[in-house]
């Protein structure tokens, strides 16, 4: 029996294309957290996806006028009121995108205090994976969010690979990060969730990246 009050997770995607790998990663992380909460806690989860590409003009107007249009205010309220946050940006010039930064510039710097935050990024090459540590983690630490230990970077080649004996595949990293977020929003220790997620019942099916993007178009 599910608990009566659902938990809320805000998933912010700064992808510019439609469909985008950034949105795809945000959806996969949200689903991983939702599944873990359903299995371990019998908790329902409401996921609110915030597509920044749809708010780009409103974000620019707010930056110069100081007044958020209704749609942007609703998105900011969804992020600040959520029990947990997923924030995903594509990599531009070795950092998060300007659109991503502009949105979080509009969030009060105390509004995310204590909120569990799962950070993730997408890029064309694995060389940019450190963007999570040198750019995104400090940003959310400044905003006083509780940034989870596992961050997820997805290069183009990761979408069609299940990993090897030395490197975890993207599906496994998504499950671990989603499990940590599920643990954090319910007040459990993250380390316990991480240990549980290392017990895998089987191999992950590898779905070609083109097919994964095509699936987004029919939603």
UniProtKB/TrEMBL annotation:
EC number: 1.5.1.38
Repeat in keyword set: no
Annotated NADPH-dependent FMN reductase-like domain residues: 8-159
Protein name: FMN reductase
InterPro entries according to UniProt: CE1759_FMN_reduct, Flavoprotein-like_sf, FMN_Rdtase-like_dom, NAD(P)H-dep_FMN_reductase
EC primary class: oxidoreductase
Gene Ontology molecular function terms on file: FMN reductase (NADPH) activity
Keyword line: Flavoprotein, FMN, Oxidoreductase
Family annotation (PANTHER family): FMN REDUCTASE (NADPH)
This protein's record includes keyword DNA damage: no
